[in-house]
Amino acid sequence: MRQIACFLILIVLLQQSAQAAPESRLWPVWLASAGTATLQPDHSYWQQFLLRYLTKSRDGVNLLDYAAAANERQELKRYLANLQAIPVAKLTRPQQRAFWINLYNAATVETVLEHYPVDSIRDIDTSPGLFADGPWDSKILTVEGLELSLNDIEHRILRPIWKDNRLHYALNCASLGCPNLQSQAFTASNTEALLEAAAGDYINHPRGAEVQRGKLRVSSIYKWYQVDFGDSEIGVIAHLKHYAKVPLLKQLEGIDDIEGYHYNWSLNDRKTAEKYQ
């Protein structure tokens, strides 16, 4: 019995480890960048894709028509192939930030389309490991001869190089609880504005933060990545207040702790809209 109990405890610990958010850990090879722009990555296809298949629900959640988008997977794969052929070191730092965000989001959509229909991206258990949960550790991309996973882009490139917590509002994990997949492709010139708008939209939506009966509940993003938001609940609340509008800003007055966390992993599928609203 004791051996069985120890084994069960080990299983639980391994599962918790598998579900823990990865640390920000720099992959130094991606630090190189150009001082001036000599290349212009073409994100026009991704922009047109978003215009065709992304719609905003009545409560502000951007939903993707995966069923219709499946008809042009080859075009999406061609866009991804074109991005992967770009010598990233020859891009300026602002170009690189937009490049990695678009690559991450487009690759996430393509991953879902490859396995569609699914109820949640977490059902796509293609990551290596006994307790794999989702596709985030699967090496699905190759840039400059190096194989990359979605987690590599987020936690070994974007987070450690830019150290900007607003990136969490730019990277979409194909879920209703996630910050919106933006309706515009990121570019060197619009990224700052998009990050600011995305932060405000998410925080002022119940998915991001809500106060009920004086108790603050926030997205699990602020628990998983608390280190990026001041590494404390007080730091998270300060971040929320920076972007909060009335009435949320007024509701946050006097609150100094977080009562609970929540997250909806249901697919951000247009077919889900009626059930969600």
What secondary-structure arrangement, pairings included, does this model have?
Layout (H helix, E strand, L loop, with lengths): L1 H18 L24 H10 E3 L5 E3 L1 H4 L3 H12 L8 H23 L25 E3 L2 E3 L1 H13 L28 H13 L5 E4 L2 E5 L1 H4 L8 H11 L4 H4 L8 E3 L10 H4 L1
Provide a descriptive summary of the structure in words.
By secondary structure, this protein is mainly alpha-helical. It has two domains: 43-186, no CATH class; 209-271, no CATH class. 42% of the residues lie in helices and 9% in strands. The chain has helices at residues 2-19, 44-53, 66-69, 73-84, 93-115, 150-162, 191-203, 221-224, 233-243, 248-251, 273-276; strands at residues 54-56, 62-64, 141-143, 146-148, 209-212, 215-219, 260-262. Strand 5 and strand 6 (215-219) form a beta hairpin. The longest helix is centred in the middle third of the chain and has 23 residues, at 93-115. Residues 3-18 have low confidence and may be disordered.
SS element count, helices: 11
Radius of gyration: 19 Å
Strand content: 5-15%
End-to-end separation in angstroms reads 48 Å
Question: Which residues sit in consecutive blocks of at least 5 with pLDDT less than 50?
Answer: 3-18
Pairing-aware structural class of the strands and helices?
A: mainly alpha
Strand and helix order: HHEEHHHEEHHEEHHHEH
Helical proportion, percent range: 40-55%
- Return the average pLDDT rounded to an integer: 92
How many strands in all? 7
- Side by side, the strands of the main sheet go 5-6-7
Task: Count up the domains.
Answer: 2
Report the sheet with the most strands, covering strand number, pairing sense and barrel closure: 3 strands, mixed
- Give the overall silhouette: globular
